[in-house]
Design goal:
Number of helices: 16
Mean pLDDT: 93
Structural class: alpha/beta
Number of domains: 2
Strand content: 15-25%
Distance between the termini: 46 Å
Bound molecules: iron/sulfur cluster
Low-confidence stretches: 1-5, 421-426
CATH architecture of the largest domain: Alpha-Beta Barrel
CATH class of the largest domain: Alpha Beta
Radius of gyration: 22 Å
CATH topology of the largest domain: TIM Barrel
Strand order of the largest sheet: 8-7-6-5-4-3-10-9
Shape: globular
Number of strands: 15
Length: 426
């Protein structure tokens, strides 16, 4: 028996929950506990948001949430989702139209706050459409934005009030036959959050998303998050977690991962290999190359992040947070260090070149390897990028088709107060 099984076996057995899927990440029903984080960029800033998503994925996030608070954010999601290495959840407050627009953008999950999106008809409309598209929803109750009626009824944001808020939302969902749900009952008070989740765990069999909200900056924020999330996980409660820190979200993802490793709930990560999801721009079989690179690198014990990217058009920029990476294109491999192209090799040699560069990078350091870059590499990559853009056009993922639908749909909602009927065909 390995150390991992041994330590997690000493915790209380995990509560049985239903299983849902956010993209390809299973949540609940005994699936590995997943780590989530949230971007701090404007979602309309596609390149900046994608770079942060890659950094979060490299730090251990399995799922990333982005705010969807305006039409430009929904349009950003339409361009981000096909290029994200991890599933994307849209965070919705107040505006049901933004939930519909996010679905149109192709997100893998929604988070609704029942405290500020309260109209039954709107909630049901969003749930119906999520059901049609097979997209799960998190009922994200928050003590700080509890429904005012429940606040009054319970005399404050009590555990019972938080759980009742989730129950009400579930009842609306069930009316339209939607059950693809996970639940959170977060609070900034650790004691309240622990009590609320214990009650939620007795009340529901849906997967639970754990978090201490507005925990503040580290180290106090880390301690609060660990006290709340760690206590519940040790009791067998919780299926996915997020630290909410006033800090670079990379710290949230790292802390989430480290907590799960410390409890023996996830295996320790050795080499950090990330790969793009391979979209319409891909020039190689990314999964095959990533597997080959993983196999070649994993026994070498190199403490670096390595990215395998499907195209040189966006790959080096998307994965600029990685120490080293390779991006395909025009039958070549473009090696990059922290987003800067240092060498171009034939495609058949890309994995060998990646391994050789990884070893040198660890031995010599980033500055030395950047100084040793081929003088012509950046120009050659630029020419390959231009050729690929010519070949595949500017919209190989059909993101602009989705953006058009979002515009029609949000425009119709603004004109009539109702979303456009049957505006989706996915
Ligand atoms: S193929 Fe290129 S644009 Fe598509 S996800 Fe991979 S690196 Fe990004």
């Amino acid at each position: 028996m390995g150390a991992m099984e041994l330590s997690s076996d000493l915790l209380m057995p995990r509560r049985k929950t239903r299983r849902i899927h956010v993209g390809d990440v299973a949540i609940g029903g005994g699936a590995p506990i997943s780590v989530q984080s949230m971007t701090t960029t404007k979602t309309a800033d596609v390149e900046g948001t994608l770079a942060q998503i890659y950094a979060l994925a490299a730090a251990g996030a399995d799922i990333v949430r982005c705010t969807c608070n305006e039409e430009a954010a929904a349009e950003g999601l339409a361009r981000i989702v096909p290029r994200s290495p991890v599933p994307i959840v849209a965070d919705i407050h107040f505006h049901y139209e933004m939930a519909l627009a996010a679905l149109e953008a192709g997100v893998h999950g929604l988070r609704l706050n029942p405290g500020n999106l309260r109209k039954e008809s709107e909630i049901k409309l969003v749930a119906s459409e999520a059901k049609d598209r097979g997209v799960p929803i998190r009922v994200g109750v928050n003590a700080g934005s509890l429904h005012p009626d429940l606040y009054k009824k319970h005399g404050g944001a009590t555990p019972e009030a938080l759980v009742e808020s989730a129950k009400m939302e579930l009842a609306y969902f069930e009316d339209v036959g939607f059950t693809d749900v996970k639940i959170s009952v977060k609070a900034s008070s650790v004691a309240l959050m622990i009590a609320a989740y214990r009650l939620a765990s007795e009340t529901f069999d849906h997967p639970l998303h754990l978090g201490v909200t507005e925990a503040g900056p580290p180290p106090a924020g880390l301690l609060k998050g660990t006290a709340g999330i760690g206590t519940l996980l040790a009791e067998g409660i919780g299926d996915t977690i997020r630290y909410s820190l006033t800090a670079d979200p990379v710290e949230e993802a790292r802390a989430g991962r480290q907590l799960l490793e410390a409890l023996g709930l996830r295996e320790r990560k050795g080499l950090d290999l990330i790969a793009c999801p391979s979209c319409g721009r891909a020039q190689v079989d990314v999964i095959a190359v990533a597997k080959e690179a993983q196999a070649a690198l994993e026994d070498r014990n190199l403490p670096i992040q390595v990215a395998v990217m499907g195209c040189v058009v966006n790959g080096p920029g998307e994965a600029r947070s990685a120490d080293l990476g390779i991006a395909a294109g025009k039958h070549k491999g473009h090696l990059f260090i922290q987003g800067k192209i240092v060498r171009v090799v034939p495609e058949s040699e890309m994995v060998d070149a990646l391994v050789a560069e990884a070893e040198r990078l660890v031995a010599e350091g980033v500055d030395a390897r950047l100084a040793a870059a081929d003088a012509s590499a950046e120009a050659e990559a630029e020419a390959d990028r231009a050729a690929l853009l010519d070949e595949k056009g500017v919209d190989p993922n059909a993101s602009e088709v989705r953006v058009d639908r979002i515009r029609r749909r949000v425009g119709a909602a603004e004109r009539t107060g109702r979303p456009a009927d049957a505006a989706h065909d996915a």
